[in-house]
Amino acid sequence: MGKGRATPAIMPIDRTGEDRPLLFVGWIDALPVPAALIRPLTRGNFRLHASNTAFDRLKLSPAGADAPIELLRAIERAEQYPDLSQEFSCQLGEGVAARDLRGSIGPLPTETGDDGLFLLTLIDRTQEMMTERNLRRELVSDSLTGLPNRAGFAELVEHRAPGDGPADHAILLLDLARFSRINEHIGPMAGDELIITVARRLKSSLRSGDILARTGGDEFAISSRVAGGRADVREMARRIRGCFDHPFRIGELKVSVDCALGCAIQPAIDTAIGDQIRHAQIALKRAKQTDRIEIYEPEAAILSDNRFGLETALRNAIEEDRLRLAFQPLIELASGRVAGFEALARWDHDDGHAVSPTEFIPIAEDSGLIVPLGQWAIAKAASVIADWDRQNGGEPVDCYFSVNVSAIQLIRDDIAAVVRNALADNGIGGERLMIELTESAIIGDPDLAMSVLSELKTLDTRVAMDDFGTGYSNLAYLQRLPLDVLKIDRSFVEHMVEDRDKVAIVRTIQSLAEVLGMKTTAEGVETADQARLLSALGCDFGQGFLFARPMDSAAALQYWRQSLVRPII
């Protein structure tokens, strides 16, 4: 019914008494929904005068004593506000026989002046509410394990009843190690079975009152009260790790799985659950690196927020071309001439201070910004060397630029296409660029490295292996890869004059390079004695503060010109 006094055309017939009007029953039977005419009596009771068949099926007590409280309150409001119809929702019955109803009630005057009657209409919303509850259940539950999902976990934690006695609240996040690789090998169906089995083991390890949820593909969350603070958390972590002591049997397979654990503890659940989960995620990220349970510290959140702010600023700087290249010379030790320059990305923040590469490069790698950053560096280096040629009267400058490429870019990007486009856009040959790849990037996926390096060689671009000797090189792959230069890591050059072991390492790397037909570049050369010793050992090129610190483009071009007149060493 709508707002206002109800005025349907009800025709009175003969009356048999002053308090019992007889109504045209066929009129109410014509209504398509359960309907009845009622007269309120004392509070909590009413008299049923007429009803249709649909209403009778609901078996609502005629006396009103067992009527839903929502209906009785609606009748009271209707009597109090006779010009307005009242709407309400209620439930009849219990269990599977329960019916969800939405009703409307309003006064119904008759032509005899009897205004004590009310028209009650009901709409059965049982199926609708059942569908809504099922959808709701799906929204807050994980379909695979039946556990709460992230949204359901947050709701349960927010509405959990307070416990007895003082206790802190802990949220512990668990991430399965190597699950994606395991899933690839055993297949997605077996992977699902593994997740279900892990969930069962975790549930069996928890105490009564703990809440377990699956918050991601291979991530679980646990909410628990801990009276003993960190000691209780570490005991809980010990029990959880015990779930992974024995392999999981999946069909005919036995699969060993480990996990990383991160936790956030709050004195009470007064911190927003979303913030506490975020704190636990910060601890979990650290746990993946340390391989032990990590408990959130506020300083970690500050660091995380700073990193996120730098990530946003770095993204803007790349998009707006506000980075620059600095150039450090590569010196041929035998002649003292400049063979080339390593192009290094530099970033000055909006507030004017320079952000160290050791700070923004890891952020770029974590966020994926290393790919556009690497693309920018290659394109910028090609542009600068083309500009140098123009400043040199159109004659090519006799040097090359070396640009670092991240392992992440090697996997995600088409480096050969990036180099090809940079060369074409600036009209220079491939020999003017050298691409530096770390040892871990090359040896980590030798087949991919072989494919990429072969494409680069077709462009006449040279390739250097950076930080050689710091990883675990596979010499068989090293022999196959089309590399031009091995860069000897600075850790072997530092103090090599006083350390015979380092001299032996450098001599071995130099001998290996000669056998494989490669050149060598020593990084971190800071003294003349180091330069002389490296030259005596046969090292081809040197790079370090002895020769020059990284400089801007104009200074680097001038440095090259001066080297033509006077050798550097």
For the biggest sheet, the summary is: 8 strands, mixed, barrel
Q: Tally the beta strands.
A: 21
- Give the N-to-C terminal Cα separation: 98 Å
Percent range for helical residues? 40-55%
Q: Report the CATH architecture of the largest domain.
A: Alpha-Beta Barrel
Question: How many separate structural domains?
Answer: 3
Q: Which blocks of ≥5 consecutive residues have pLDDT under 50?
A: 1-24
Look up the CATH topology of the largest domain. TIM Barrel
Q: Could you say which overall geometry the principal axes of the C-alpha atoms support?
A: elongated
Mean pLDDT: 84
CATH superfamily of the largest domain: EAL domain
Number of separate helices: 21
The structural class is alpha/beta
- What's the Cα radius of gyration? 39 Å
- Which percent range describes the beta-strand content? 15-25%
- The level 1 CATH classification of the largest domain is Alpha Beta
Instruction: Describe the strand arrangement of the main beta sheet, using strand numbers.
Output: 13-14-16-17-18-19-20-21
Task: Outline the fold blueprint.
Layout: H1 25-29, E1 35-40, E2 46-51, H2 53-57, H3 69-80, E3 86-92, E4 99-107, E5 118-124, H4 126-140, H5 150-159, E6 168-176, H6 179-186, H7 188-205, E7 211-214, E8 219-226, H8 230-242, E9 248-250, E10 253-255, E11 259-266, H9 273-290, E12 294-295, H10 298-319, E13 323-332, E14 338-348, E15 354-355, H11 357-367, H12 370-391, E16 400-405, H13 407-412, H14 415-426, E17 433-438, H15 439-444, H16 446-458, E18 462-468, H17 475-480, E19 485-488, H18 490-493, H19 500-515, E20 519-523, H20 528-536, E21 541-543, H21 553-565
Helix pairs in contact: 6-7, 10-11, 12-14
